[in-house]
Amino acid sequence: LLTGSNVSSASRIAMGAKSPLTGGIKESNGGGITAMWLATLGIKAVVMEDIPEDDEWHYIRINKDKCTLEPANQYKDIGTFEFCEAMIKKYPDCAVTCIGPAGERLYSIAGIATMDKEKKPNRYSGRGGLGAVMGSKKIKGIVVEEKGTVEIKDKEKFKQVFKEYSSIVIKAPSSVSYKTLGTSATVRVSNDLTGLPTRNFRGEKFEHAEEISGESLYDLIKERGGEGKTTHACMPGCIIQCSNVIPDKEGKTIVSPLEYETIGLMGSNLGIGSLDTIAKLNAVCNDLGIDTIETGAAMGIAMEAGIAEFGDDEGALNLLDEIKNDTELGRLLAKGTLTAGKTLGVENIPVINGQAFPAYDPRAVKAMGVTFATSPMGADHTYGPMIKTDDFVGASKKAQIMMAKIDSLGMCMFLRGAITKHMDIVVDLVNAVHGWDLSMDWLDVMAMDTIKDELKFNELAGFSNEDYRMPAAFTNRKIESTNDIFDIDSGELDKLRQWND
Ligand code: SF4
Question: Does 113 reside within a domain?
Answer without folding.
Answer: yes
